[in-house]
Specification:
- Chain A: Keywords: Membrane, Transmembrane, Transmembrane helix.
- Chain A: Pfam families: DUF6814.
- The complex is a heterodimer of chains A (about 80) and B (about 525).
- Chain A is mostly helical and about 80 residues long.
- Chain A has one domain.
- Chain A is about 85% helix and about 0% strand.
- Chain A has 2 helices and no strands.
- The longest helix of chain A has about 30 residues.
- Chain B has 21 helices and 7 strands.
- By secondary structure, chain B is α+β, with helices and mostly antiparallel strands.
- Chain B is globular.
- Helices cover about 70% and strands about 10% of the residues of chain B.
- In chain B, helix 11 crosses helix 12 and helix 12 crosses helix 13.
- The chains are: A mainly alpha (about 80), B alpha+beta (about 525).
- The interface between A and B is medium-sized, with 26 and 29 residues.
Amino acid sequence: MDQVKKILGIVWMLLALVVAYYGLSMFGIPKIMSDKQEDTVFGWIILTVLMPIIVGGLGIFGWYSFTGEYSDDKV
Amino acid sequence: MASSLGTLIEWYDFYIFGSLAVVLATKFFPADNPTAAFLSTLATFAAGFVVRPFGALFFGRLGDIIGRKYTFLVTLLIMGFSTFLIGCVPEYETIGYAAPVLVLILRLLQGLALGGEYGGAATYVAEYSQPNRRGYWTSWIQTTATSGLFISLIVILVTKTSLSPEEFDSWGWRIPFWISILMVGVSYIIRRNMAESPLFAKAKKEGKTSKNPLKESFGNKFNFKFVLLALFGAVMGQGVIWYTGQFYSMSFMQKVMNIESAQVDTMMALALFVATPLFVLFGWLSDKIGRKPIMMIGMLLAIIAYRPIYKAMYNSVKIESKVVTKNGLTEKRTVKVHAKIPTDSLITFHQEKVFTDGTVMKKDSIVHWAAAGPSMVNGKPEEPLIKQAITVNPDTRWLLIVLVFIQVVFVTMVYGPIAAFLVEMFPLKIRYTSMSLPYHIGNGVFGGLLPAVATYLVVSGKSAGHSEWYLEGLWYPIVVAAVCLVIGTLYLKTKNKSLEEDELVEETEVENPVV
């Protein structure tokens, strides 16, 4: 199981990159460029508050998983 | 009861703003003023899911240093007074920009208070509970979010039916905000007389509390990895399932299925009312068989069932497959001339259809007509604004109530045991701080994003011509819950975690915990 967690660590880090890509290209930048004020506010919140939490958090989680921090003897 | 009552009132206060958002927008945030509209958007988004994690950090830190009791007493008062004061703020017409600014500040205070309340109440109750009944007692806290939504809907409904539409629009909308102060007063008196959590009181007496909970929670690798595990292995999935069952289902019926909003409100209220006791059932069951299996099964069932459920909901009111009764078609055309510009007017084409199965559809197509003909946009006649409202027949109504109820069952499975689960994950001295942040990020960020992301996916699916475009919005909760299910299943321990401090509870011999 510890080996599976290590391999999945790479998956979570890649997933963080995918979220970053879609967060920027689908929500963040298009919303900021929108003419609608509510979309602009939403876009800035996505980029400055939510994206760092999701991408950073999932990326660190993946790294910890990859380096064995969640192995049975450490949890 | 004291802890649950306070948390219920906080949720009530928070939802009142959302439920009355349409009225408030006209009072404090006039649509023709861009700055006011900007403040309105901030008030909705910021307090909705950005401010709550900050409240979790701020009040969580206080709770781990000063104590659980005094901290959640403060959050209760902040929430209560902020809500009461929103009901007292003069309208935009009276004090201009000060109105939206004041409302925004009060709304931010509401978000901060809510961020601090939940962790305090859950921690307090868990630390007061017998170790083998922690899931049962904390599940009462879990009922409060749903009950708060339910009560806010009832209070608004009663206020509306007691007053004429003009009275409600003029001043009646303030009543639900004012009522808050009475409830907060009662809750404050009850909470003030409560004792500090026995575990925290003992730790404080022995000088074992944390000096810097934020640093110990998030600067310490060992604790931080549990914060991340709580977020991605449980709360992230719980957040999207909670928002899908209780909010997306509501907006799906209103916006995608076009069902009349009053009928949607009553269907939602009934489904929530019937399902709410299940929070306690699953909390109790989690004491017997473990928190993890219940939460993971709840997520798995939701992932499998969402698409069939929403497909059945959508097909239940498919107008195209229904037959109009004889003489069941009414059409009317009305013209409303602009009050100040006589050459401008709004033309409304009203159509009403009664179908053989008892379903009724009302449709208004509104066109703006200027002196030179129809209003033009980019060289083309302006698209009519279409308002459609469907009143479903009793059979369909019951079917929809059952389908929403099933979704709320999933909510109760993932949400009922989660307070006890989070409390058991962290050590006493940083518990309030550590559990509050993942909870509010999971709910606020992942759950709070759901309406915007799901709507985006539905609109994109429709414009791309997908045959089942109305189901596209479900990909967001399905994918997030699936990731959470994998992480939770593989990384979380199956057995309920035994707190190191359990023996302290036994020493205090608590027989009737205050919940």
